[in-house]
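Appendix B, Record 12. Input sequence as logged:
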Amino acid sequence: MQNKIALVTGGSRGLGKEMALSLAQKGLDVILTYNSQKEEAEAVVKSIEQTGQKSVALQLNIGNTSSFEHFFKTLSSTLKEKFNTGKIDFLINNAGIGIHASFAETTEEQFDTLVNIQFKGTFFLTQKALPLLTDGGGIINISTGLARFSFPGYAAYAAMKGAIETLTKYQAKELGHRGIRVNVVAPGAIETDFGGGAVRDNAQLNAQIASVTALGRVGLPDDIGNVVAFLCTDDAKWINAQRIEVSGGMML
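Logged structural output:
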């Protein structure tokens, strides 16, 4: 029987890496993309292959929509050669960056970078993926707790994620006739290298976040990966158009 296949953008490190590994543990084959971290991506592929699942890493710059045509040609040929299929079952839109700047000081260049990577890139990558997405499959868009609560310095970033959350509902509505479920996973603060690793490496910030989290600690990458993997199973077949915040109860 053909294993289901998940495509995880930004799967070479941080949350994307944990998502890819969690999906493999659930018995899915995984295609992951990386922007520049080829060696890290290949290491994730090796880890997945050690679980007995198939995996491959493809280069993708999510912020450059003009590269998508080439990416999808490569993806199609990879699917045929490596997985003996022409389709993927799940798309996890995880790739992204964080830019920390107050609203008053955010530059147009920073804003445009965030739009291209966090919103425009995700919008059109998903659009172009539709012919390859199996009917009855799923899309998971990664947002942030910062779309619900506010910490100074994330106005532009969180606004893009707010747009992703609205887009998710429209995708669920318009793709429902194909049986495609579309959901949002919104992590709280997580200890990764995201945003320069501030949450992980700044003890004062880490303690502050833990103090406003009901479970009393900062999140870890596998707190998120397992939830994404769950949404790619039949156990989640009736979950659609939902925002699932995975934050341990931040800012309640």
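The chain has a mean pLDDT of 96.
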